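Slide 14.
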Amino acid sequence: MPTGTEFERHKGVDMLDIAYHNGSLKIAPLTIDDNTVLLLSSFLAYEQCDNSPGPSSPTSLYSRIA
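Slide 15: predicted structure.
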């Protein structure tokens, strides 16, 4: 019996259009261009913005490898 997750190219064009079904993760291809760094930096900033009450801590994988 196979284990793990298979990755498949999703036909969608939106990078947030992600589907998981029966061990197969379908994601749209990520096009790298002049705006990619700005977009990923914006995602990182949004992820770091924690508005929940109580103490906050960095939970991002990006913050650990950057």
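Speaker note: The chain has two helices and three strands.
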